[in-house]
Design a protein that fits this description.
The chain has one domain: TIM Barrel (Alpha-Beta Barrel), CATH 3.20.20.100. Helices cover about 40% and strands about 15% of the residues. It has eleven helices and ten strands. The longest helix has 15 residues. Its EC number is 1.1.1.-. InterPro entries: AKR, Aldo/ket_reductase_CS, NAD(P)_OxRdtase_dom_sf, NADP_OxRdtase_dom. Belongs to the aldo/keto reductase family. Keywords: NADP, Oxidoreductase.
Length: about 280
């Protein structure tokens, strides 16, 4: 497994296992155990996923030493604000059954971002979190947070896939030394991703699947990636991407798939902001 180094010196696996949309307790626990057995050491969950307890139980049952793991969770907008963020963090830690967290993210760029970030900064200084960061922050929001706070986010987790490659976002993150992490690397199958002719043909050259080609493309762009699957064979397949390297020609060919358009929703859409307000209980 290749590691990347965050801006505070903490090392993080470049490829991890995500548990978004695995809400069933037994399925989530079983899948995380399968991932750990396959060699994953980075697990990405969130308060909003409703599966932190299953992840925590799987970690405990695995018997893998804590220092060998890199665990990420996220604060949901309903608990933004200094005091509420502190309480939500404690609740997440209780469910995960951990004494410290490797990475804690603000899940969305809405509500009381500044109060929440102050809470994360304090938890970081207290040694309860090894690194803090954000998710779904566009460049302007990311630079704003960096400019007016003491501690710079170590990472920004944003939608990134072959159809929405986030080149401009990546440039800003590189400039400000913030690690780029992808969610939905397979676009959740949208745009006939798994049947894409270009990716299929590239995969044939290396004896790899469309998913493996895409994960390798991310890694060669120095983007951390957290694929999700509940199928044991695919969980194993997704980590088997360190025995080949895409050529420059293949990397360039994949760049032509970029549409610069989200496959889900735009966080700058007013209607979506209103929806997040509802989800936050306001």
């Amino acid at each position: 497994m290749k590691n990347i180094t965050l801006n505070n010196g903490v090392e993080m696996p470049v490829l991890g296992y995500g548990v978004f949309q695995i809400s069933d307790y037994e399925e989530c626990k079983k899948s995380v155990l399968e991932a750990l057995k396959a060699g994953y050491r980075s697990i990405d969950t969130a308060q909003a996923y409703g599966n932190e307890k299953a992840v925590g139980d799987a970690i405990k049952e695995s018997g893998i030493p804590r220092e060998k793991l890199f665990i990420t969770t996220k604060l949901w907008v309903s608990d933004y604000g200094y005091e509420k963020a502190k309480k939500a963090f404690a609740d997440s830690m209780e469910k995960l059954q951990l004494e410290y967290l490797d990475l804690y993210l603000l899940h969305q760029p809405f509500n009381d971002v500044y109060g929440s970030w102050k809470a994360l900064e304090e938890l970081y200084k207290e040694g309860k979190i090894r690194a803090i960061g954000v998710s779904n922050f566009h460049p302007d929001r990311l630079v704003d947070l960096i400019s007016f706070n003491e501690i710079k986010p170590a990472l920004n987790q944003i939608e990134t896939n072959v159809f929405h490659q986030r080149e401009e976002d990546n440039k800003v993150m590189v400039e400000y030394d913030v690690q780029h992490e992808s969610w939905a690397p397979f676009a959740e199958g949208n745009g006939d991703f798994f049947q894409n002719e270009l990716l299929t043909n590239i995969g044939k050259k290396y004896g790899k699947s469309v998913a493996q080609v895409t994960l390798r493309w991310m890694i060669q762009r120095n983007i951390v990636v957290i694929p999700k699957s509940v199928t044991p064979s695919r969980i194993k397949q997704n980590i088997d991407v360190f025995d080949f390297k895409l050529s420059n020609e293949d990397m360039d060919a994949i760049s032509t798939l970029n549409t610069n358009t989200t496959k889900f929703f735009d966080h700058r859409d007013v209607k979506m902001v209103e929806q997040f307000k509802t989800w936050a209980g306001y």
